[in-house]
């Protein structure tokens, strides 16, 4: 694992040097950070050596992907997960997609060790294609908020079998391919 220090994170050519020096083949960052990084020629050259790019923390736009796919042949993944669950879903972006596409890519399927469901306000799973809140349970889910029992009571749903689900507050639906599509935040 190679981690960029504070100075390296501010200067794309220093990150490019790290990729080259340590033969980095997998890189992870936010889409907005990647947009800045690929403006640097050294970074574009270094990305040609990567095999996997994982982008997380924000919606992944087709415009950024088109630019990335013109730079590298790496497999590109869209990762999703609030802080409380870390990464809990993934989506491998297709190598090709229609040039006119403007909508963000799905957030994908459950990561290994996690189970997700789209649920209504009562914690009941909704049919595929219907909107609901994304609930997550599994190994990546936090144990709870430190010394905040009321917040924990609001943030978790306990099912009939005793399963403990984190309520993300994110509205999603399952599309025809079985991938979660992020629709926005739930309020209220």
Overview of the structural elements:
24% of the residues lie in helices and 29% in strands. The chain is built from six helices and ten strands. The strands form two sheets. A five-stranded mixed β-sheet has the order 1-2-3-4-5. Strand 9 (164-174) and strand 10 form a beta hairpin. The radius of gyration is 18 Å and the shape is globular. The model has no long low-confidence stretch (mean pLDDT 93).
Stretches where pLDDT falls below 50 for ≥5 residues? none
Helix content: 10-25%
Q: How far is the N terminus from the C terminus?
A: 41 Å
Q: Can you give the mean pLDDT?
A: 93
Spatial order of the strands forming the largest sheet: 1-2-3-4-5
Secondary-structure element order, as H and E? HHEHHEHEEEEEHEEE
Main sheet characteristics: 5 strands, mixed
Q: Quick one: overall form?
A: globular
Per DSSP, what share of the residues sits in E-state strands of 2 or more residues? 25-35%
The counted number of beta strands is 10
Rounded to the nearest angstrom, the radius of gyration is: 18 Å
Our count of helices gives: 6
Q: What structural class do helix, strand and pairing data support?
A: alpha+beta
């Amino acid at each position: 694992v190679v981690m960029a220090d504070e100075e390296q994170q501010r200067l794309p050519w220093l990150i490019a040097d790290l990729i080259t020096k340590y033969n980095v083949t997998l890189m992870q960052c936010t889409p907005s950070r990647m947009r800045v990084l690929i403006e640097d020629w050294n970074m574009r050259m270094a990305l040609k050596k990567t095999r996997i790019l994982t982008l997380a923390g924000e919606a992944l736009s087709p415009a950024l992907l088109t630019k990335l796919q013109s730079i590298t042949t790496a497999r590109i993944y869209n990762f999703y997960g609030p802080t409380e669950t870390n990464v809990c879903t993934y989506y491998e972006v297709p190598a090709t997609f229609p040039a006119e596409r403007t909508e963000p890519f799905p957030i994908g399927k459950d990561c290994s060790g996690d189970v997700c469901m789209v649920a209504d306000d009562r914690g009941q799973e909704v049919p595929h294609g219907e909107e609901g809140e994304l609930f997550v349970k599994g190994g990546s889910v936090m144990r709870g908020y430190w010394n905040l029992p009321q917040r924990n009571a609001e943030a978790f749903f306990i099912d009939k079998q005793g399963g403990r689900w984190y309520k993300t507050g994110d509205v999603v639906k399952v599309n025809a391919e079985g991938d979660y599509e992020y629709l926005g935040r739930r309020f209220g």
